[in-house]
Write a structure and sequence with these properties.
Layout lengths: L2 E7 L4 H19 L7 E7 L5 E2 L2 E2 H16 L8
Parallel strand pairs: 1-2
Antiparallel strand pairs: 3-4
């Protein structure tokens, strides 16, 4: 009996989670040859302050990525700065 644990950021709809669970179930049935009824999927949702990448919360990481994108899009002045 395969048991799959998915960790997602909060914000997805029930329909999206159901679609993901169905797709993953089909993939396990197809690739492992298990019965659909034996597949178990646990979905745990995390808030932006509960999930860390490189020591930053997802909120901090998103803000840093946005700042980097905005800096990269700023036009250069006559001195190339």
């Amino acid at each position: 009996m395969p048991i799959l644990e998915m960790h997602l950021m909060k914000g997805r709809t029930e329909e999206q989670k159901c679609n993901a669970a169905k797709a993953v179930t089909e993939a396990l049935v197809s690739s492992l040859g298990v019965k659909r009824e034996s597949v178990r999927i646990l979905i745990t949702e995390h808030g932006e302050h509960d999930f860390f990448v490189s020591g930053m919360t997802m909120k901090e990481r998103s803000q840093a990525q946005l700042s980097a994108q905005q800096s990269a899009q700023q036009p250069l002045n006559a001195e190339g700065k």
